[in-house]
Write a structure and sequence with these properties.
The complex is a heterotrimer of chains A (289), B (316) and C (422).
Chain A (H helix, E strand, L loop, with lengths): L2 H33 L6 H17 L4 H22 L9 H23 L15 E3 L2 E3 L2 H22 L1 H11 L1 H6 L4 H23 L11 H14 L4 H22 L4 H15 L10
Antiparallel strand pairs in A: 1-2
Chain B lengths: L2 H5 L2 H15 L4 H27 L8 H16 L5 H23 L4 H21 L1 H4 L12 E2 L2 E2 L3 H24 L1 H11 L1 H6 L4 H27 L9 H14 L5 H17 L6 H15 L3 H14 L1
Antiparallel strand pairs in B: 1-2
Helix pairs in contact in B: 2-3, 2-8, 3-8, 3-11, 3-12, 3-13, 4-5, 4-6, 4-11, 5-11, 8-9, 12-13, 12-15, 13-15
Chain C lengths: L21 H35 L12 E7 L6 H20 L8 E7 L4 H13 L5 E4 L3 H14 L3 E3 L13 E3 L4 H15 L3 E7 L2 H13 L6 E8 L7 H8 L5 E3 L5 H12 L6 E2 L7 H6 L7 E5 L13 H17 L5 H20 L4 H9 L4 E2 L4 E2 L15 E6 L2 E6 L1
Parallel strand pairs in C: 1-2, 1-3, 3-4, 4-5, 6-7, 6-8, 8-9, 9-10
Antiparallel strand pairs in C: 10-13, 11-12, 13-14
Helix pairs in contact in C: 2-10, 2-11, 3-4, 5-6, 11-12
The chains are: A mainly alpha (289), B mainly alpha (316), C alpha/beta (422).
Chain lengths: 289, 316, 422
């Protein structure tokens, strides 16, 4: 492998992880924009989506059906949680809501453990296409699917939040629930929607990423951490910023591992993050609000 | 000063409980004092977090960082360089103080969510360095054979002795924290929490106070780390990760933020809970999560807040 | 816009006027009188639940001079090590059952009490203490990682209760007088495959090590044994076990033209390395840790077209053993019962803990004692104990008891294990 080809491989490696981080970051930002809440349970929706699909596939159910069924289950689950738990806490300080989402994620993880046990599950890539090969470096085909889904999600959400009435209502709710309710918007219902969105996108992320990784009841933790970091790099305000943040994180990791040191790559990446936060706190790609 | 107020005085309740606890469970006191020593250590950590988050409004999702630093400095200095535990602990506290002053200034300028991210990142950096610098820290395998704590040659090897020492220190930390909170410094911190710009308009040097409390809180954390290391005799990076920082947050909210006593209850509750729910085996994780959800929904002032409300109401 | 994250101190004066449901208005009314009562009720129900848990639990103190011999099991049942904790638990529980079926130890049954260490050294230390002080354990078994073993070893030595662990932790009898290890020494898991590499002329090995204790161990031992087998370590890269992709590291190693890759990791990370190697077209052998000698791993690497080498003990492939091997009978008989009870044959992980329980029963029988010091001497005097891992030969200087010959190298073909080198 020549010097150039392994540089390209670093790029592809970064693209692979970056696409995963981008999708997760996007789902986190969407929930944030819709509800002003950093939802720590998001990782568990990701895992449930992947695990449900894995189980259905193992039973022989065709891919599309498994995908849709899993999506439906996650949306219902998210809505259920919002209804039973979050609804009561809508008026509480945000710090408490965050801790509540942490508690929920623990309970969900415990639940996943009971249903799926401790083993890891493998999901096949959706399309059996050979990896892309370029000057000796390779990129799995699933990555294109992930990037495609991310772009589609971004598009749908942009349309939703900017162009539809409900989307506008949700944004209003997030920014100022009191004023919104004065305007006749049902805050509870908006919150429910926001959660269901979060559940849906979390599940989609989980399913689309599953072929690249392995799924197990504890698989939700890593994406959360990376998603948050991506969100911070890209800025909380723009959804596209989060996606770009994800790719930037993936590429930075890959190039640090490749060119600098694989032993201290975590330390280096996090130091860069702190520096970014200190000097450009609203994120590298934030629009002025 | 009626009887009821004396009886519900938190200091009294705490001191009495600490004194008699080992004797209530006399036949397995080593186990019970062990659990309670962990409670004390985490209480110190959570109180620090309360000062930082509850009173000054600065979020930290990386409080375990200085816990780790204190523990590792103590471990390294006592096992490799034969320094006395007291000296090692003091060194750890000094180092933590200096480090937090250096990092505090730029990082504390960040707000809320970004501060949370930065503290999380710092925690990860500390862990990454601990694992990376194998030669010094034993890497992921950890450091073993940490000697028991000793003050000027008097060894605290016996579990009962160490238990009282640790709780004595914890009570001291509580007293100190309450003093800070009730002093003009405390009021300045509340002002910063409420509205930083307004506070600045009143002439409060926000940066000085924020950095100051950050230093104090991390020195506490380092102290807790040293006490922990000498008790357990063996440390590894596993127990200082972001997961631990997140547990501290949960302890804080569980007990009741902004009260100093809340953290005491929260930390003890969360450390004792597994000792009760372990019977559930496979269901333990689910049960613990559900208990937390229950408390957060139905007792939103935290355990301490609720207790306070009830006793106040009962009073009149 | 002021995003007040921590509002508790400042009371909210403004009341909301929601447009929506009646229920909200009802709540407002209840607020005044009912809240204290409601809180009190909730607090009481919580306390009642917890007290119930304590009461319903098995009785408090177990420390008696008579009664069953309590063995304390410390296994990771949750956390990142949980998948292997389960195998260990099943194996040890079944063995204890079988021994009790046959009358226990001279009429007295064994009682295996298992707790979850949540893959954390701190939790393991707490459990060890609990098992000793509360449950009256005479022996401890378990611990699945090096740091966890270290934490439990400290307690075992302090409390003078012998522990039989099963991990890569190397026991130095001088420092860890009370600790024994039925897992094969990690050295074997590297020396044996290196023998194979030498035999096959694959002398250039590249290391791709996980960040963590396993990686450190693997790297250190690889460098220690390489010279004696004429192997050159041509390069080393590290990776985060949670990383989604290691093609960057593999690309760097590929330029060094290795004849094989050695990645001392277990489970998902090992499968990821294999998958990425296949993606890059690196069809050279991948040596992974002996921790992968379990059925779960076969599922993970199904359809990956890279030759994978897994060191293992006899328990994974007992049918390939010659009939003259004393361990063969023991393994096959136990595996049959294991299959009957759990629906799957015993594996390499179960074997470690099965042997631990068997050794404990034997030693208690021989010494007739519950005292730590005597039990330790008892184990050290076991010179010919046939177990699933091998024929144990303990001594004052050797708390492992097994030898290089007890390991073999396996590979995977058509989703099944195949013997490669013995």
């Amino acid at each position: 492998m020549s010097d150039f080809s392994y540089l390209v491989q670093f790029f592809f490696s970064g693209l692979t992880s970056g696409s995963i981080y981008a999708l997760i970051a996007v789902s986190l930002v969407i929930v944030y924009r819709a509800s002003q809440l950093i939802c720590f349970s998001q990782g568990e929706f990701y895992v449930f989506g992947a695990l449900i699909m894995a189980s259905l596939l193992m039973k022989g159910i065709p891919l599309l059906a498994a995908f849709l069924l899993s999506l439906l289950s996650s949306v219902i689950m998210a809505g259920f949680i919002q209804y039973i738990v979050i609804r009561r806490l809508l008026k509480k300080p945000i710090g408490m809501l965050i801790v509540m989402t942490i508690a929920i994620s623990l309970a969900l993880r415990g639940f996943a453990l009971l249903i799926w046990g401790r083993e890891s599950y493998v999901v096949r890539p959706f399309f059996q296409v050979a990896p892309l090969s370029f000057v000796g470096a390779t990129l799995p085909s699933q990555v294109f699917l992930i990037m495609g889904v991310t772009a589609l999600v971004l598009l749908c959400l942009w349309l939703f939040f900017e162009k539809t009435l409900i989307g506008l209502a949700m944004r209003a709710c997030a920014e100022n629930p009191d004023a919104a309710s004065l305007m006749g918007i049902n805050v509870h219902r908006m919150s429910l929607f926001a959660w269901m969105w979060g559940g849906a996108i979390g599940a989609i992320s989980g399913m689309v990423v599953a072929p690249l990784l392995f799924t197990q009841y504890t698989s939700g933790i890593m994406p959360m951490v990376k998603g948050f970091i991506a969100m911070s790099i890209g800025g909380l305000t723009g959804i596209s910023g989060a996606a770009l943040g994800g790719f930037l994180l993936g590429l930075t990791e890959a190039f640090t591992v490749g060119l600098v040191s694989s032993r201290f790559s975590d330390a280096i990446v996090f130091t860069i993050l702190i520096i970014v936060l200190i000097f450009k706190p609203s994120g590298l790609f934030a629009r002025s609000q | 000063m009626n009887i009821r107020r004396i009886l519900t005085n938190p200091y009294l309740i705490l001191c009495l409980s600490v004194l008699i606890a080992p004797f209530v469970f006399a036949d397995k006191s080593a186990y019970v004092t062990g659990v309670l020593i962990f409670c004390a250590v985490y209480t110190i950590l959570t109180i620090g977090l309360d000062l930082l988050m509850g009173y000054t409004g600065q979020i930290s999702v990386g409080h375990a960082s200085f816990f780790a630093i204190g523990a590792y400095v103590s471990a390294i200095l006592t096992t490799r360089y034969g320094l006395s535990p007291l000296g090692a602990m003091a060194s750890g506290m000094v180092l933590s103080g200096i480090l937090s002053w250096a990092i505090g200034r730029p990082v504390l300028a960040l707000k809320e969510y970004y501060l949370a991210m930065a503290t999380l990142a710092f925690n990860e950096i500390v862990i990454s360095l601990i694992i990376g610098l194998e030669g010094l820290t034993g890497g992921a395998s950890g450091i073993r054979d940490i000697p028991p704590f000793a003050i000027f040659g008097v060894s605290f090897k016996h579990h009962l002795l160490y238990y009282y020492l640790v709780w004595l220190i914890t009570i001291f930390v509580i007293v100190l924290s309450r003093a800070i909170v009730n002093s003009p410094v405390g009021r300045a911190l509340s002002a910063i929490h409420g509205d930083e710009i307004g506070a600045r308009a009143f002439g409060i040097d926000c940066t000085k106070y924020k950095t100051g409390i950050f230093v104090i809180v991390n020195v506490f954390a380092s102290l807790a780390g040293s006490l922990y290391a000498h008790f357990i005799g063996f440390i590894a990076p596993d127990d200082f990760q972001v997961g631990t920082s997140v547990s501290l947050l949960v302890m804080l909210y569980l007990g009741g933020i902004g009260t100093i006593w809340g953290p005491v209850i929260g930390a003890c509750f969360l450390k004792i809970l597994p000792e009760i729910t372990y019977h559930f085996k496979d269901y333990e994780l689910l049960v613990n999560g559900l208990i937390l959800v229950f408390v957060l929904i139905f007792l939103p002032e935290g355990l301490y807040g609720t207790l306070k409300k009830i006793t106040k109401r009962a009073e009149g | 816009m002021l995003l007040r994250l921590l509002d508790t101190k400042i009371p909210k004066k403004t009341k909301k006027i929601p447009y929506s449901s009646l229920t909200y208005c009802e709540n407002k009314k209840k607020k005044k009188g009912g809240t204290i009562m409601k809180r009190l009720v909730c607090l009481c129900s919580l306390t009642a639940f917890l007290v119930l848990c304590i009461l319903v639990a098995p009785s408090f103190s177990q420390k008696t001079a008579k009664g069953p011999y309590v063995i304390g099991g410390i296994f990771p049942l949750t956390g990142y090590l949980s998948w292997l904790g389960e195998y260990k638990k099943k194996g040890s529980e079944l063995k204890a059952e079988l021994i009790n079926e046959a009358g226990g130890v001279d009429g007295t049954p064994l009682k295996l009490v298992v707790y979850d260490d949540q893959s954390s050294p701190e939790q393991a230390a707490k459990i060890a203490q609990r098992l000793i002080s509360k449950d009256g354990a005479v022996f401890l078994i378990g611990t699945a990682s090096v740091p966890i073993s270290g934490a439990v070893a400290s307690i075992a030595n302090k409390e003078k209760v012998p522990a039989i662990i099963g991990s890569g932790y190397e026991v130095d009898p001088k420092k860890d007088k009370y600790v024994f290890n039925t897992a094969h020494k990690t050295d074997f898991a590297i020396a044996r495959p290196f023998e194979y590499f030498k035999k096959s002329g694959m002398t250039k090995v590249a290391l791709l090590m996980p960040i963590g204790s396993l990686g450190e161990l693997g790297s250190r031992l690889a460098r220690k044994y390489a010279p004696s087998y004429g192997i050159t370590i041509v390069g080393e890269e590290k990776f985060d076990i949670k990383a989604p992709d290691v093609t960057a590291q593999l690309a760097k190693l590929k330029t060094l033209n290795p004849s094989a890759i050695f990645s001392f990791c277990t489970g998902e990370p090992a499968a990821l390395v294999a998958r990425n190697m296949a993606q890059l077209g690196m069809k050279i052998p991948l040596l992974v840790s002996h921790g992968n000698a379990n059925p779960g791993f076969l599922r993970l690497v199904k359809d990956i077209d890279v030759p994978i080498l897994v060191p293992s003990g006899r328990a994974t492939l007992p049918n390939e053993l010659p009939d003259s091997d004393p361990c063969k009978k023991v393994i096959i008989e136990f595996s049959k019962r294991h299959e009957q009870k759990y629906g799957e044959p015993a594996n390499y992980y179960s074997a470690e803990m099965v042997d631990a329980v068997a050794i404990i029963a034997e030693v208690i029988k021989r010494t007739g004692s519950r005292e730590g010091e005597k039990l330790v001497k008892g184990i050290e005097n076991l010179k010919n104990f046939v177990g699933m891992q091998g024929v144990y030969k303990f001594s004052e200087d050797d708390h492992h008891g097994t030898a290089l010959e007890d390991m073999m190298v396996l590979t995977i073909k058509d989703g099944k294990w195949r013997l490669l080198h013995r």
